[in-house]
Amino acid sequence: xxxxxxxxxxxxxxxxxDWKEIQNDCIILNSTIMAHNLNFNTETGQHAFMSVKQTAxxxxxxxxxxxxxxxxxxxxxxxxxxxxKAQIFAxxxxxxxxxxxxxxxxxxxxxxxxxFGVVGKDYQIVQNSDAFAFFDAIVGGGKGILYETAxxxxxxxxxxxxxxxxxxxxxxxxxxxxxxxxxxxxxHDGSGSITAxxxxxxxxxxxxxNAAMKTATNVVxxxxxxxxxxxxxxxxxxxxxxxxxxxxLEGIFNExxxxxxxxxxxxxxxxxxxxxxxxxxxxxKKGATEELSTMYKNACDAAFEYAMADDTQQTExxxxxxxxxxxxxxxxxxxxRNFKTDEDKLKSICLGGTAQARGQKAFDLCGDFAKxxxxxxxxN
Length: 380
Fold this sequence. Notes:
By secondary structure, the protein is of the alpha+beta class. The chain is built from 10 helices and 13 strands. It folds into 2 domains: 5-23 and 254-377, no CATH class; 29-81 and 124-252, no CATH class. It is 34% helix and 23% strand. The strands form 3 sheets. Strands 3, 4, 8, 9, 10, 11, 12 and 13 form an 8-stranded mixed β-sheet that branches. Strands 5-6-7 form a 3-stranded antiparallel β-sheet, with no helix packed on it.
C-alpha cells in the first residue's frame, strides 16, 4: 500500500518560493509572468486596469480601497471611452482617387483614434458602459455585486471585468472558502462575442476552479447583434447558473474532501487529466513512458510537484484528499503553467481553452473516483 501524499509531505520541504509574490492574486489576468499587455493611455499617463485593495503582480493600474460603483469602476479602469464605426476608403491604383468600401467599417475609440478592426454593416458596438450594465442587471441595479478588477488590453480593443457575487462555497469546517465570481470579456474589433463565465475563485490559494460540470453550462456568449433586452435576459441566466452551480459544487467538493487518495493515484489522475491525445493515452496504457513527449512529462511532473509541495495543498480539505487532487490540476494551470500572454491564459482557463478542458477532465475523473475508487483510473 503506497503512502498518502499527506504522509509523504512530512519528509518533503520543497516549496514554490518563486511564486509567493503572486499567490494572493485571485483574478486570472493578475497572475501570469508574461507581458501584461494592458492598454497604456498616453494622454492620461495611466494603464487601463483597476483592482480593489490588492496590487497585481505587474504593479500597474489603479488600486482602490473600497468597492466602486459601476460608473466609478469604468473611470478607475480607464474604460471611460466610446467606440464608433467609421467608413473605410481604399485608394485606387495609379491615382489619388479614394473609393468607399461597401458594407465594411473600421471600429475605433473616439478619444485616442486607435483603430481596432474591420467589421460588417450589421455589427453592433457594445460600449464599455453596456458591459457593466450587463453586470448590474444580474442582481438588480448593482445591489450586492462587487467589482473586483477591470481593464483593457492592447489599444483598448478587448476589455475584461471580474465581479464578486453574493455568497460563497464553503468546503470543510470553514477554512476553505470559495467566493463566487462572474468574469466578462468583450472585444471591439469584431473578433468575438460578449462572453460571461461563472468562476469560483479559491481565496486561500488563488486557484481558478472553473468546474464546468456536464449537467450545467458556465459560459454564456452573446453576439454583438443582440439588443439590450437579450443581454438582460442572458444576464439573469448567468446568475441562475452561478447560483445552481455553486450549490452543486459545495456538495461535491465537501464529499471529495472526505475521500482519501494515494500518491500513485494522484499521479495517475494527473497523467489522464493532462493527456493531450489518443497517441499519448495508448503509450500510457502500454507503459511506454520513455516514448512520451518531454513537454507532456514535464507538465505532469510540475502538476505532481504542486500537489505534493505547495502550501495550499496542505490544508485539512486538500491534504491527501480527492479535492486536493482535483485542486492540483487547476492550481497547476493557474499558478505554475506559463502562457505567452495574459489573453492566452484567459482563453485557456476561462473561455473553453486547454486548461478548462483539462480541468473538466480532472473533474470527471474525480467524480468517477468518488464512485468507483482506483478502478476509475484504470486504462480501458
